[in-house]
Design brief:
Elements: H1 3-18, E1 35-41, H2 44-52, H3 64-69, E2 74-77, E3 81-83, E4 90-100, E5 104-115, E6 123-127, E7 132-135, E8 140-145, E9 149-150, E10 156-168, E11 170-181, H4 188-212
Antiparallel strand pairs: 1-11, 2-10, 3-10, 4-8, 4-9, 4-11, 5-6, 5-7, 5-10
């Protein structure tokens, strides 16, 4: 194999490793918003209560949605944030770090949003996607979701809220909650990923041409 092909192959491998996401998004990541306003790591005492949480039994007289919204939860509430309409939209971004306990789907169900004593409890909705399908026993994984956006019409002071409803086949290692403002957009990491993809394709094409000679 020519040296330049080997060098290109090693370069693409290095880019793939460097681009692998770990932990919550940093302030330069525009995938979840324009500006990172606040970041919190859930305290260990709350995490331990989440690990020990036993889900409440559903009420057969209620719908699935009603049971979800009224279920017993382990709650975390963050410091107040002044939600300025001039910085809309506002987003609560959640990152879960967990370890699968056995082979199979690892999943968790949460409620997330904003709580405020002055606004009848705030705005809370179900969250999906914080898990890993077809996980392997002992596999540690990180997943980040932005459940939705909030666009207040007037300035409003509220507190970010997370509530664990239930979890299955996973041990919660860490939970991060971030507050972002503005619309998501491309970053240098997105362009780097696009360049990496094109470079990998070029290397594969050159290797195919070399071995077909």
């Amino acid at each position: 194999m020519p040296r330049f092909l080997l060098a290109l192959w090693l370069m693409t491998m290095g880019l793939s490793q460097a681009a692998a996401p770990e932990g919550p998004p940093d302030k330069d990541n525009r995938r979840y918003g324009k500006t990172l306003v606040a970041e919190h790591r859930i305290d260990q005492a709350t995490l331990e209560r989440m690990r020990q949480h036993v889900p409440s039994a559903p009420d057969p007289k209620r719908s699935k949605a009603e049971n979800l919204m009224t279920a017993d939860t382990v709650n975390w509430v963050g410091p107040p944030v002044r939600l300025d309409p001039g910085q809309n939209p506002w987003g609560l971004v959640i990152t879960l770090v967990a370890t699968a306990q056995a082979d199979g789907d690892a999943s968790s169900t949460w409620l997330a949003g904003w709580t405020s004593e002055s606004d009848n409890g705030g705005r809370v909705s179900p969250v999906s996607g914080l898990g890993k399908p077809n996980a392997k026993a002992g596999e540690r994984f990180t997943v980040t979701v932005r459940p939705g956006s909030l666009m207040p019409k007037e300035a409003w002071t509220a507190m970010p809220y997370l509530g664990l409803v239930k979890s299955s086949n996973l041990r919660i290692e860490a939970v991060h909650a971030q507050v972002w403002t503005g619309l998501p957009g491309n970053t240098w990491r997105d362009y780097l990923f696009a360049f990496e993809t094109a470079l990998v394709g070029l290397v594969m094409l050159l290797l195919w041409w070399w071995f077909r000679r």
